[in-house]
Amino acid sequence: MDIEIKGLVKKYDGETIFNGINIYIKKGLITVISGASGIGKTTVLNILSGIDSEFEGLVCGVDKSRVAYVFQEPRLLDHLTVSENIRFVLDKKMNGREIDDVISKVLESVELKKQKDFYPAQLSGGMKQRVSIARAFAYPGDLILMDEPFSGIDEKLKRQMMDDIKKLQRKQGKTIVFVTHNMAEADYLGDEHYIIEGKPSEIIKIK
Ligand SMILES: Nc1ncnc2c1ncn2[C@@H]1O[C@H](COP(=O)(O)OP(=O)(O)OP(=O)(O)O)[C@@H](O)[C@H]1O
């Protein structure tokens, strides 16, 4: 099902961030939302995921129990290994053999199979973020929200990670909403691309 945000009005402490914007997110595609720092990108993701319910307008087509999030920082559990960090979000959602299979496939896609028994402290920043991307794709959901996941990652690795995301997304057909301030990332990754600008913010579809 496609996702639609209709007539979104969002205020923080009386300050209007959005004054009636509309966003259409097509199922099974990567939609990028770009814009300057502080413009309201994370706010849109929080509204989509249901973290933020204080707004006016409509959000249609999101099953909140089936949303995975990749944040700016990896947010792994330090006392669990790479595969345990992924297993943790899959427990009770699938059976044991299925879980092993899913973990092995996603770790292969992000080239971290050899590190499956490492703890986060034994990984580089980029590797940790690849684990959190793998975890989001392993999660049995329809929608993945990504909030500037490449902060502090060099250009070469970033390109590889964008290719991994595209590959996994094409294979699984999940819907991705990806937020960034970086136009090159937006251009490379997005099937569809919205830009947020102005105050209160307008949203413009450029692709
Ligand atoms: N909980 C909050 N209370 C008050 N103001 C907030 C709150 N969260 C965000 N804001 C304000 O709303 C605006 C939009 O914030 P948001 O985090 O959505 O922007 P962003 O585009 O994701 O920025 P960045 O790229 O820096 O993460 C900012 O001016 C911010 O200061």
UniProtKB/TrEMBL annotation:
UniProt cross-references to Gene3D superfamilies, sorted A to Z: P-loop containing nucleotide triphosphate hydrolases
Ranges for domain ABC transporter: 3-206
GO molecular function, one term: ATP hydrolysis activity
Keywords for this protein: ATP-binding, Nucleotide-binding, Transport
Signal sequence annotation: none
InterPro entries listed in its UniProt record: AAA+_ATPase, ABC_SmlMolc_Importer, ABC_transporter-like_ATP-bd, ABC_transporter-like_CS, P-loop_NTPase
UniProt protein name: NitT/TauT family transport system ATP-binding protein
Organism whose genome encodes this protein: Alkalibacter saccharofermentans DSM 14828
